[in-house]
Every structure is written in C-alpha cells, then in structure tokens.
Amino acid sequence: xTTSHSYITSYIKKRSDFLSTMEQFAKEQHIPIMExxxxxxxxxxxxMQQPKSILEVGSAIGYSAIRMALTLPEAVxxxxxxxxxxCQLAAGYLEQAELTSRIQLLHGDALEIDIDSFxxxxxxxxxxxAAKGQYQRFFDKYSPxxxxxxxxxxxxxxxxxxxxxxxxxxxxxxxxxxxxxQQFTKWLMNxxxxxxxxxxxxxxxxxxxxx
Length: 211
Fold this sequence. Notes:
Layout: H1 3-9, H2 17-28, H3 36-49, E1 53-57, H4 63-71, E2 76-81, H5 84-97, E3 103-107, E4 125-128, H6 135-142, E5 151-154, H7 175-189, E6 194-199, E7 205-210
Parallel strand pairs: 1-2, 1-4, 2-3, 4-5
Antiparallel strand pairs: 5-7, 6-7
Helix pairs in contact: 3-4
Catalytic activity: 5-hydroxyuridine(34) in tRNA + S-adenosyl-L-methionine = 5-methoxyuridine(34) in tRNA + S-adenosyl-L-homocysteine + H(+)
Binding site for S-adenosyl-L-methionine: 34, 64, 81, 109-110, 129
GO molecular function, one term: methyltransferase activity
C-alpha cells in the first residue's frame, strides 16, 4: 500500500460493526470483495447517478450489494452468484441486514441463468465483478437490459497489474484470462454506443455510459 493510498483511506468514514465484520470475514477467508477505496468510489458514482435499479454480476458474500442498497435506499437490486457456499453466506448477511425485500439474490451461472427470473426488465446500472475472463460475455448478455443513459461499471480491470505487463510475464495459468480482459477493455473503450472512462481506482474500474 502506498503512502498516498494510506492517506486516502485514513479519511474514509468508519463503517458499521456489521460491515466491518463482513470485511474481516472476507479477509480471513480470502474471499474477494471490492477494495475499500474502490467501493467508496463506486458508491459515490452511484450517488451521483441515483439509479433506481441495479444488476450485479458476482455477489460473493453480498458485501457490495449491501453497501449499494444502504447507500441508495430507494433502489432495488438483483445480484447473481455462481458459488453455492458464497451464495448461502450472502443470503445470511442479507437477512441480517434486513434487505431481502430490496435485494434479489440468485444462485447460478450468470451466463446460463434465465433473465426472465429477474425482478426487473431493465436496470439503470449494471455492475460486473465476476470471472474476469468472461467480462465480454457478461457484457454482451446483460448490457441490453441497460437503457440509454444507464451506466455499466466493471471492476478489476487491471487484474492486479497483469493486464499492464507483457503477456509472457503473466503466469501461464492466467494468460487466457488476461488476454480476454485486455481484448474486452480495448473493445469497450472503442465502442461507439458507450462513453467509457477507465479509472485507476482500486484494481481498476471502467465506467460506461450508454448513449
């Protein structure tokens, strides 16, 4: 962590005991949730956008969905998680947070799940934070649910720095994933239907406004 990063995090408001417990659990169990600066930045973007409905691909234990719901008390969310154990954990946390009436948690592969099961037919915001090598496919499947003026947020676009280095320096087991993410990034940044900005926040976030 750089000094500047530490300086920034020192000004982030203390979270509730409930959220802090979730953060600690995720850290201890090596479950990936958004970095603190990244989630705080995403929430600020959402405050500016004020979406009434959000679709999240990749729930993990429900941390980001809960943070979004608490930040936007008028919004409803649908969130999808493939891993059964994490989905069960997320369900428990949603119960504790008393947000089950506003957050629809779906267990399944986001590439296979039936869109007809969603609580909404369109979503003002789409947040993609799942398998990095599948971002293009997630985007292709779910971007049609976002209307003109809606926003698509993608996290982990730097993939811990792997997308910034020569592919031969990337561990062999990660090369296909990194190539896919690099190709998706290039495609997205040049897509005429979206106005996209790539920000070096956390592990890299892209923000795409649909024209």
